[in-house]
């Protein structure tokens, strides 16, 4: 009788474990969770593990009888990569995470209270929840589509392949080893810029990139509104705002994580496979005291070792939490300005909270402003420049020898300054790495005896300084004579990108006083020139811009966008000149075979430089190349650019007849708020303008698609669109529309393609591939659709053109 009993028990156990395998304490790891299954907190060894075993997911202990549902690296010391309930830990008994049949992952506490939910859109076709090898926890349907993923909801860490977008952010932990949310965030702001910000109930303060600079001075761009940033597996991060950095150990086969640490600093870490330890391979801020809010109100951040201190006359509020700052041991009243005085703190600054700013002000005048304003707690003053910063609140304090500012603190006249030096007080560690120490003194500490012995040393130093200043001034004067630059542009002496800045005299010499004209258009005149030394002479095309508006900052911001664009089918910018609004020039690479219009519409048919030289294979090559260049501008480069003036005159041909698009980005430089009306005045451009220009509709990349379609028709026919008009009384647009309707009708209803022979350029003498011509004509017809929503994107145009192989060896008809 024992055998049937044991057999029954075994079968019961097997059936139970088959129906609910995760409900048992079997100490097993699983690769997926099916609908209706659960992971229980008391079975902490039952984990969801990625196929390679690199990541694990389950309940992670965060305190006494407190657990979080997290994802961590399996091969190190369980470094957390993601947490569902970082601010609401669950009980160590009875808590569980379940995958419901509607596709929702739910974390429940011991009493059934829902602590966290994935809020997945309900669906009846859920397959499983699975942890992928990249650390992404996903819920998929029966078709394998992801209906929810942890990558969309990061906590303080980004993994390779995970995106930061306008809909999510990184939030630091509150302290080292604690998962709860802190006050520092890494996110896209409303200007499309990725930044670090300190955000507490009392204050909000941006500290990276440099808040003193405008975004273009920080090498960022606000023109791309996609707001996407991603770290790849090689260790390279790229953001839509042009934030770019890479790991110092750049390469594959390295586990990485980008983490916003508890101290408010964004760091990229790489895992050593031998020691299983993390090392920093990139860091956003090398000076921790630049992080705002690190020492709280009135607190000062100091170096070596990295510490937070309370200034003399202040005491710490909470020794366990420096972010709460310090409190004064005195009380300042507003009864009388004569009852207060000021204590000096050299090399000290409290960033922000200035209720006014005045330059070139005397010390006494600055002091008077703060003295007679009850809300003024202190004022910062820079000797020499006379900059005055009265402060209504004192946050983000730091001490550094590099800080050329002195803080003057308002205290009661009866207040006695403690004789204890800040370095002798009880300083509390900030829990961040040590860096170089900077000296720190107060006014009373600087008043010492024995000043007379320094008189001779100071006198000698002043003499040396005066002699050096004289040499510097003379050298500067000679340089100024050689190369005048507007005073407001001194900060732009270095080019904003990888190209060179030229003076106007240099380009005047390079072009022999602008003698050799290559062409002209609505945006300016182009001249041929030669730059460089005798051993490295470089032929360039110099464009003198006309009608440039806007200030220097705007001009350089647009240049920083154009200069970073690099594609084989786009003319490369070599440099620029900006000396006031009167002399603004762009220096481009010189392209050998001039522009497409001269090669395509040349009256010298038999010339090697005329249309005859544009055989069928070359025309195909030009069409594909131009499409690739526009597709790059529209889809692939970070700074989304609409050309607005695609025409044969702006398509240059090199010695291999590879096309290169010119004048991209000039719409921004010329500040054409009414771009359509201005372009209509440029000779030879009216026929290329999309219909939406006249309708005052928002201009998108589809306007370039239309222009490209017109250019493609001209490449096929060898005739300008404007020359299609036979009757001078007819409008060119009406003739074009009627011609397109006829051609489209023939394309759709003609069973034989012999009619295409009448449309293709007669100068080819029938030496072309008919099937390729039909495909290209179909692409052109799609591009010139009057309704822009019916036009393809340039990326689709490239794919359609590449589907017809344009190699010369295929010309067999």
From TrEMBL:
Domain annotation Apple: ranges: 334-412
Secretion signal: which residues? 1-25
Give the Enzyme Commission number.
Answer: 2.7.11.1
The UniProt entry, under CDD domains, shows: B_lectin, PAN_AP_plant, STKc_IRAK
Any GO BP: recognition of pollen
This enzyme catalyses:
L-threonyl-[protein] + ATP = O-phospho-L-threonyl-[protein] + ADP + H(+); L-seryl-[protein] + ATP = O-phospho-L-seryl-[protein] + ADP + H(+)
Domain Protein kinase span(s) in chain numbering: 512-811
Q: SMART domains from the xrefs?
A: B_lectin (SM00108), S_TKc (SM00220)
Molecular-function GO terms, alphabetical: ATP binding; protein serine/threonine kinase activity
Transmembrane parts of this sequence = 455-480
What PROSITE patterns does the record point to? BULB_LECTIN, PAN, PROTEIN_KINASE_ATP, PROTEIN_KINASE_DOM, PROTEIN_KINASE_ST
**Could you tell me the membrane topology recorded for this protein?**
Single-pass type I membrane protein
The record's keywords, sorted A to Z, are: ATP-binding, Disulfide bond, EGF-like domain, Glycoprotein, Kinase, Membrane, Nucleotide-binding, Receptor, Serine/threonine-protein kinase, Signal, Transferase, Transmembrane, Transmembrane helix
The first-level EC class reads transferase
Indicate which residues the UniProt annotation says bind ATP. 544
Q: Name one GO cellular component term.
A: membrane
Name the Gene3D superfamilies on file.
Bulb-type lectin domain (2.90.10.10), Phosphorylase Kinase, domain 1 (3.30.200.20), Transferase(Phosphotransferase) domain 1 (1.10.510.10)
Where does the protein end up?
Membrane
Q: Where is the Bulb-type lectin domain?
A: 24-152
Q: Which family does it belong to?
A: Belongs to the protein kinase superfamily. Ser/Thr protein kinase family.
What this protein is called in its record is: Receptor-like serine/threonine-protein kinase
């Amino acid at each position: 009788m024992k055998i049937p009993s044991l057999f029954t028990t075994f079968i019961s156990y097997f059936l139970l474990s088959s129906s609910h395998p995760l409900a048992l304490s079997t100490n097993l790891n699983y690769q997926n969770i099916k609908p209706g299954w659960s992971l229980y907190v008391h079975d902490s060894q039952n984990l969801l593990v990625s196929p390679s075993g690199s990541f694990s997911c389950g309940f992670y202990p965060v305190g006494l009888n407190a657990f979080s549902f997290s994802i961590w690296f399996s091969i190190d010391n369980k470094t957390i990569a993601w947490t569902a309930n970082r601010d609401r830990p669950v009980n160590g008994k009875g808590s569980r995470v379940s995958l419901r049949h509607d596709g929702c992952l739910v974390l429940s506490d011991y009493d059934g209270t829902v602590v966290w939910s994935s809020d997945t859109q309900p669906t009846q076709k859920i397959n499983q929840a699975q942890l992928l090898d990249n650390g992404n926890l996903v819920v998929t349907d029966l078709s394998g589509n992801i209906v929810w993923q942890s990558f969309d909801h990061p906590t303080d860490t980004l993994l390779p392949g995970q995106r930061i977008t306008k809909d999510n952010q990184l939030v630091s932990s509150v302290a080292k080893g604690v998962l709860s949310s802190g006050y520092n965030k890494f996110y896209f702001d409303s200007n499309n810029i990725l930044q670090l910000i300190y955000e507490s109930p009392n204050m909000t303060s941006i500290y990276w990139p440099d808040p003193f600079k405008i975004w273009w001075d920080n090498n960022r761009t606000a023109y791309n509104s996609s707001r996407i940033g991603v770290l790849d597996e090689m260790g390279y991060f790229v953001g839509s705002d042009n934030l770019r950095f890479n790991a110092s150990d750049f390469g594959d086969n390295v586990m990485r994580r980008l983490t916003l640490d508890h101290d408010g600093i964004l760091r990229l870490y790489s895992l050593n496979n031998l020691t299983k330890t993390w090392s920093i391979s990139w860091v956003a801020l090398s000076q921790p005291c630049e992080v705002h809010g690190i020492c709280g109100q009135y607190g000062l951040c100091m170096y070596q070792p990295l510490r937070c201190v309370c200034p003399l006359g202040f005491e710490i509020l909470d020794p366990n939490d420096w972010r709460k700052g310090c409190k004064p041991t005195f009380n300042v009243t507003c009864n009388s300005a004569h009852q207060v005085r000021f204590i000096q703190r050299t090399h000290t600054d409290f960033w922000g909270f200035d209720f006014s700013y005045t330059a070139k002000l005397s010390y006494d005048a600055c002091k008077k402003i703060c003295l007679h304003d009850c809300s003024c707690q202190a004022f910062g003053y820079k000797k020499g420049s006379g900059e005055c910063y009265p402060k209504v609140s004192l946050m983000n304090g730091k001490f550094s020898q590099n800080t050329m500012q002195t803080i003057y603190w308002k205290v009661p006249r009866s207040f006695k300054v403690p004789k204890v030096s800040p370095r002798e007080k009880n300083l509390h560690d900030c829990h961040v790495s040590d860096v170089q120490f900077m000296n720190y003194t107060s006014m009373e500490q600087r008043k010492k005896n024995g000043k007379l012995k320094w008189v001779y040393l100071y006198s000698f130093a002043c003499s040396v300084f005066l002699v050096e200043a004289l040499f510097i001034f003379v050298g500067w004067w000679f340089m100024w004579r050689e190369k005048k630059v507007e005073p407001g542009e001194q900060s732009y002496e270095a080019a904003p990108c990888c190209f060179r800045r030229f003076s106007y005299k240099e380009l005047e010499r390079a072009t022999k006083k602008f003698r050799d004209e290559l062409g002209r258009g609505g945006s300016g005149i182009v001249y041929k020139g030669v730059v460089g030394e005798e051993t490295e002479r470089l032929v360039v095309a110099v464009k003198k811009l006309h009608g440039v508006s806007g200030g220097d900052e705007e001009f350089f911001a647009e240049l920083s966008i154009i200069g970073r664009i690099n594609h084989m089918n786009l003319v490369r910018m070599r440099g620029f000149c900006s000396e006031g609004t009167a002399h603004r020039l762009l220096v481009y690479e010189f392209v050998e075979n001039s522009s497409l219009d001269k090669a395509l519409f040349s009256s010298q048919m038999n010339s090697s430089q005329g249309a005859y030289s544009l055989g069928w294979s070359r025309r195909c090559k030009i069409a594909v190349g131009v499409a690739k260049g526009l597709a790059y501008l529209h889809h692939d480069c970070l700074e989304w650019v609409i050309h607005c003036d695609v025409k044969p005159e702006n398509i240059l041909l090199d010695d291999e007849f590879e096309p290169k698009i010119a004048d991209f980005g000039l719409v921004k430089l010329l500040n054409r708020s009414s771009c359509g009306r201005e372009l209509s005045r440029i000779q030879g451009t009216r026929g290329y303008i999309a219909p939406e220009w006249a309708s005052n509709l928002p201009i998108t990349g589809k306007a370039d698609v239309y222009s490209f379609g017109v250019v493609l028709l001209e490449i096929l026919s060898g005739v300008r669109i404007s020359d299609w008009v036979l009757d001078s009384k007819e409008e060119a647009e009406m003739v074009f529309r009627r011609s397109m309707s006829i051609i489209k009708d023939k394309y759709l209803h003609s069973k034989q393609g012999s009619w295409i022979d009448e449309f293709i350029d007669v100068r080819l003498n029938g030496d072309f591939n008919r099937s390729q011509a039909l495909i290209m004509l179909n692409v052109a017809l799609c591009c010139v659709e009057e309704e822009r929503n019916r036009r393809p994107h340039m990326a689709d145009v490239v794919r359609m053109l590449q589907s017809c192989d344009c190699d010369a060896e295929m010309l067999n008809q």
